[in-house]
Amino acid sequence: MASNIGMMDSAYFVGRSEILCWINSTLQLNLSKVEEACSGAVHCQLMDSVHPGMVPMHKVNFDAKNEYEMIQNYKVLQDVFNKLKITKHIEVSKLVKGRPLDNLEFMQWMKRYCDSVNGGLVNYNPLERREACKGGKEASKKCPQSQASSKGSTAAPKVQSSHNARRNDVSSSNQSVKASKPSCPVPAYDEQITELKLSVDSLEKERDFYFAKLRDIEILCQSPGIENLPVVAAMKRILYSTDDDASVLAEAQAMVSLHQKEAEYLSPIAEVSTEEKENSDPQKRKNIVNLGVDAVGISTLSPRQRLSDATDVRCSGSPLMTY
């Protein structure tokens, strides 16, 4: 289904001119830019063309100029999507701004969907259906007026004489040449302006994407548990730097390395190597065994031996003995 197509689908590579030709031929309009359909009324009638009677055309406003009026049209479109169980998300806040890139992408999706339903129109009268809409008659008058004027210009030479017809042909040809001179560069400038707008929109999207990432990092650095860590301080130094100097990164790295050196200098007693542990363990065992043997030996002495030991100590002049 067209509602599940990805951004790399061929539908999103359809050109702007092809989209405009499809809209104008389907609905008998005279749009010159895709963003002119940002009101949502064109989208509603396109859905009405492939699903006749599904769209309440009396609720569609072709004369919508303000955002709140355009939002009402998109609400009608969203109701139709819900009835047809179409899961396509409508980014109303972006479409009503009239940005060329957003409107082009959504209209590319609309063309893909309409082509997937029936491959074209069957006995659909867009002018008649548009009469029920608010401002639909004014939108329909733009195209027939140009057709009527062209028909009147071709019928006039038939009434006049051949001489007047030649004169009119010459004058009309001169006028067409004069008119063609200023009109030639206008489409070229319009195309360049549209391309520049598309590039600006893409750059703004990329800017917003990376700004959101940096904002997430800033919020993480402000967490109470880690905001005082040296690594977090170094990250803040980079985030809040106002200049483009490369020394900012060096300063941040120096902050981290300095903390590592201080941690090593202020660290507790160094861990004893495994070899020293192995050498010290037997010595500890020997001392413990000797102490145990001495204690046992003293406890096994007889009272006479203990008295003789004390006498030896007194004779030796030990300061511990009192007379």
UniProtKB/TrEMBL annotation:
Residue ranges of the region described as Disordered: 137-186
Keyword Transmembrane among record annotations: no
Alphabetically ordered keywords of this record: Cell cycle, Cell division, Cytoplasm, Cytoskeleton, Microtubule, Mitosis
Biological process terms in GO annotation: cell division; protein localization to microtubule; regulation of microtubule polymerization or depolymerization; spindle assembly; thigmotropism
Domain Calponin-homology (CH) as annotated: residue spans: 13-115
Gene3D superfamilies, per database record: 1.20.5.1430, Calponin-like domain (1.10.418.10)
GO molecular function: microtubule plus-end binding
Superkingdom assignment: Eukaryota
Signal peptide segment: none
Location(s), subcellular: Cytoplasm, Cytoskeleton, Phragmoplast; Cytoplasm, Cytoskeleton, Spindle
InterPro entries membership: CH_dom (IPR001715), CH_dom_sf (IPR036872), EB1_C (IPR004953), EB1_C_sf (IPR036133), MAPRE (IPR027328)
Domain (EB1 C-terminal) ranges: 178-248
Transmembrane helix found in the keyword field: no
This protein's GO CC annotations: cytoplasmic microtubule; microtubule organizing center; microtubule plus-end; phragmoplast; spindle midzone
Composition bias type Polar residues, residue spans: 143-163
A Pfam match: EB1
Protein family per UniProt: Belongs to the MAPRE family.
Name this protein carries in UniProt: Microtubule-associated protein RP/EB family member 1C
Species this chain originates from: Populus trichocarpa
